[in-house]
């Protein structure tokens, strides 16, 4: 195991995780991703309303403090919560660490760790899965609901490596199985947080999201796509002009090129079209798209993602 992996989740990162959890806890006000609030009333934990007491009602739900003040018996009603699983899915294809540069992959792994930690802190049932490259989405880490298992989550992420092709569509079936809610769980169908650079799979994204949204008979899933990319992915500003050899990060194909200002400008326009295409695919399938450049402050990305995914109250 290399030094960079050893330092991936240092003491400072753990402190940042705890701060994120505290912020998320204050903002969520009890409304979390895996425990969806239903319009039905039941015996959940979130207070909904009162109604008059009637003979035969369960006396455990009488609002005794209200009776002490007003001398009137009322029954406390609660929102019914339907349980589902939150799946944090991480792309481990070769483009996530091109040429051995792990900046983007490390950023994605930290993002996965933080999202998993906050979800566990909200008492969600959480599964962490890797897909693409040499990873099988079915070989996942079941984190459960206990934040005390965060060290197991970090060990799992630290042990991942990036390489090979994305293979998004073949991975979706496994992810779909992992996100399946508890049998008889009502309107809950699971939440999926998909972390990927989406490179070399833009053509597959629409079909993949379609599978995620429709493969569960219990209802539509909440899917959030976190599009991780580096400044070089978007702008290619560090490349030197002149002759160069490009190598495909996933297939190892090579192409010779003479880099000029015109070529760079054409690349940036193409990148913009690519990003818009990914965003449009998400919108058309009812998924949430989050742009995540690696120069974005980490905490800002996590809170933005959680809000847009509906895990945190706006």
- At the first level of CATH, what is the class of the largest domain? Alpha Beta
List segments where confidence is low: pLDDT < 50 over at least 5 consecutive residues: 28-44, 181-188
Largest beta sheet: strand ordering: 5-4-3-6-7-10
Distance between the termini: 40 Å
CATH architecture label name of the largest domain: 3-Layer(aba) Sandwich
The helix/strand series, from N terminus to C terminus, equals HHEHEEHEEHHEHEHEEHEH
Number of strands: 10
Might you state the CATH topology name of the largest domain? Rossmann fold
Feature tags:
314 residues, alpha/beta, Rossmann fold, 2 domains, six-stranded mixed sheet, two-stranded antiparallel ribbon, 10 helices, 10 strands, elongated
Commentary on this structure:
The chain has 314 residues and is α/β, with parallel strands linked by helices. It folds into two domains: 3-31 and 84-308, Rossmann fold (3-Layer(aba) Sandwich); 35-81, no CATH class. It is 39% helix and 25% strand. It has ten helices and ten strands. The chain has helices spanning 3-6, 11-28, 64-70, 103-121, 150-158, 168-178, 202-214, 231-235, 261-284, 298-308; strands at 35-52, 74-83, 85-91, 125-131, 141-144, 191-196, 222-229, 242-247, 254-259, 288-293. The strands form three sheets. A six-stranded mixed sheet has the order 5-4-3-6-7-10, sandwiched between helices. Mean pLDDT is 78; it is low at 28-44 and 181-188.
